[in-house]
């Protein structure tokens, strides 16, 4: 994935109802925020919150819309509509099952309300201001977008986005969030806020009014029972009241921090007393007034003295550490006594010279070794040890012509592979880089190798004994004005470690205290001032450890007052300050606490690695409070870093997180790093999230770490390690199933193309490059991006230096080349694969075979088979079989035998194929170890297909069922699915058994649910529904309805509009079969609405016709079909010029209206059908149309037109009669014409002619009953109307003969008997 900007903003109920609710929330949010702007983070803009904060009369929003959008490229432009629709589809799925999104938003400290998939909006709410604080923090840091990508985008996205740079961008409405924050604070009853204007409050603690300036932060409590607002001034603790103060709540982090502070830290000494113009200054400043030092820790200055700032000067603090330029003296200087000079400048960072801004250090070599070992463990590729089963299916691979450019590339590849193989001849496995050490070896930055502190024996104290020899070693060690490393170790020890490691020979602390007390007195008498000072410090620490705080305070204060000269051991001074500050706070001596903390701040800002001197975080909290109240962003960032580092050293991860998050937010808002390493801080945050079981945030933080411009190879690999540790937890993958997840693809890609790896150099980088490439290519191959995998493998081969010996083992090298060959086979390039395999085979020993040689020969057979060279392929397979027999390698032997069988199948040698496949099955079945099922199952399925094609159905069933059982026992979901599909097809087609087919189809649905392929699941449910419909029982209909509704829900979730429309229609059809007519129209209307929403005219037409077919093919309510055919479908067919659809609709309307006796209306459609048929030149349709028109005109008593159309029908009939049905048609049409002419037109002569033609056809057909009827009618005509006694007698005798043969008792040739003979044709249209 290409790098993006640092500020990467990426940030449920019934299916239909949730979207509706979401739209209502959205409309409500838009009404209350009509002029809201979309911003990239939580804003402190006062526009929405300034003014009067009233009581809860104001309506605060309860839902925050989180808007999602798919963006592309570094400019973050909206992606195409296909990508947006993909996002909508994922959101629809979450609407139906919100378990995953609920889990995510719980981790993000918010609560899901609803999802509007069409608008790509998720509505969330908050219950506490802390949730708003955390959510906005994650949003500002760009975590939301990363979390949404992990939730909404499929795993292949991680690979495609390497080049396309696709991301999900998250936006929130700033004003809505501010109003929600304000409403929650009002509900909680008290808040910290800054004054929007200068204002007065009635003082409740003194006679005068309380005055607060604009920007002053104070604690406010809302009115209670009609009283006014109560305010507490944090500067001096003064209180006041006002009816309607103008205020603006502070940002959520400040709200949380100030509420978490003890009142003794929070109230008092809050506002700076100087006007130094720079927030954090370096360089030299000028003294403005004269000042005499009041203690050894201070510096005396005179006006005009140039003071060099030691470290940093924070303008919001009272003191800083300075050095007089003239004399070199070092001490504390009041900030109010100096002003900037020409050499004063604003610091670009918040760290001291020589101070590390990181929380931990990572040794690159160990990180690389650890990552190589981890990737090797998770990416076990068995291509170099196990035979590949030939299931490749593509055609004409040997006919693909290669261009000259491709030939050149292939020649270069072959040359480079040969070079690598030649380099490997001198290599051995002992040259492989080994891995030792872990990331746990990362250490804190230290000043140097710390020496061990000295140890002193505590001598019993005897009253009146003035012997001082026992104290000489101790006093000698402690004496000296300057700092020593041993002192630093001693200063940092706790009272317990101090008493146990520095001092020995005592039974309890009291003996140590007594011993040190005598030593202190000895040092005082001998004027060993620095020994006395340090002994007072040690006594103070020991007394504090014994909870004797007042006595400890006396010792610490004495330690400060003993030195006559200035403190040069500033670590000692800082340690004294730190301990004394903690004691002042415990003793509630706030004035001394504030005064001494200000001095401690100066030392923290002036001395590197002074943070370890602090006893607790109270002083740091005071510093952060001072920075917040002073609105000093740099000071706030520095304080947050110090607090985070303080808690990190004490392994208090939960307490590190808020300060580290705030530090990163400040850097993002200021668009400056202030000397910190953002990638390192994000790494630290990712580790902490991982410890706190927050996998989404951990992975997002790791991604942000790797995307920083300052990120190194070590940072990238460390980020990858965090992802590998958390991604299994993220997706519920067990350790046994763990492999290289697609989520690490961006890190693999980034590390692979880093300057260090690309530059080569050390062997370690080459090994890392090999491992990164193999892992990345495995991911590409797994997700069917074989071309990308081949490209990266070629790059790896081409970049291997020629001058160095290969640093991987020969088997591992060969495995990589064999796998490359397999990739080429998979990519329809078997000729390239064959060249690679031949090169590898040539590099192997000539006189002794190896198992890996068999792997090459087997794959070589696959390549030859793909090229169509079946003979050489069989030879290669047989050679592989021979090697397996030599080494008794049963699993690979079984695969090779199976490949021979598959080869014979393709060659058409079915008997030989069956023999090899059954031998392979026998070998597989004898294997005891697991892991062979992935090859065994496809072999069984292929053998089963062979048996089915040979009509040996029982053997085929046995193979399929065996394969299914194996897949279930091995928990191979894809194989289970394949076997189940085969069984469903078998019982549905080759060996129809509806019950079995339904059982396996239902099992297929269950498997598809596990795979998560909801599209296939919906299609399978539709197929089951059709199976139940064929049973034609009410119970089966209801089962079909349930499956149809389930599939309908899936198609709605996926946004498959056409399938959704068919689902609605199918449900309506089933309700029609169940005679629940009240629901039929409802479902059909829903189907019609969905179809119309697609805008696809052809689909709409098809669905409307199918809706009419429901009634057309039914026995009741057939008239409803007219509405769909005539009023809805036909106009669309005419408008879209869909001629065939129009013809089909007209034919159906004609037939339907004939059956409903709507003859007049039917004529129009029959004539249209005739015109279309003539235009299309389709004689069969034309003949049908003429016949129907004849029937219609006959029914309408328009006999001449009926005769005309019947005759036109007969002219279109084929002259050569091939089937009896054609002859029968002649009989019926001529008989109908005769009846019309005789009975309706009263023309017995012409009628006799038609009857004669009908009789001729009946005689040709041999239909005796038709001959009886026709002879009877001819006898009647000749006897009664044409008066031809001879013909009358002839036909009468013929009729009597047929009657006798057909057992007809009586023949009536009276003229009255013929009058109703045509009634059947008028009603049936035949």
UniProtKB/TrEMBL annotation:
<feature type="repeat" description="TPR">
    <location>
        <begin position="1183"/>
        <end position="1216"/>
    </location>
</feature>
<feature type="region of interest" description="Disordered">
    <location>
        <begin position="1"/>
        <end position="41"/>
    </location>
</feature>
<feature type="compositionally biased region" description="Basic and acidic residues">
    <location>
        <begin position="23"/>
        <end position="33"/>
    </location>
</feature>
<dbReference type="InterPro" id="IPR036028">
    <property type="entry name" value="SH3-like_dom_sf"/>
</dbReference>
<dbReference type="InterPro" id="IPR001452">
    <property type="entry name" value="SH3_domain"/>
</dbReference>
<dbReference type="InterPro" id="IPR011990">
    <property type="entry name" value="TPR-like_helical_dom_sf"/>
</dbReference>
<keyword id="KW-0728">SH3 domain</keyword>
<protein>
    <recommendedName>
        <fullName>SH3 domain-containing protein</fullName>
    </recommendedName>
</protein>
<dbReference type="InterPro" id="IPR042772">
    <property type="entry name" value="SH3TC1/SH3TC2"/>
</dbReference>
<dbReference type="Pfam" id="PF13181">
    <property type="entry name" value="TPR_8"/>
</dbReference>
<dbReference type="InterPro" id="IPR019734">
    <property type="entry name" value="TPR_rpt"/>
</dbReference>
<dbReference type="Pfam" id="PF00018">
    <property type="entry name" value="SH3_1"/>
</dbReference>
<keyword id="KW-0802">TPR repeat</keyword>
<feature type="domain" description="SH3">
    <location>
        <begin position="280"/>
        <end position="343"/>
    </location>
</feature>
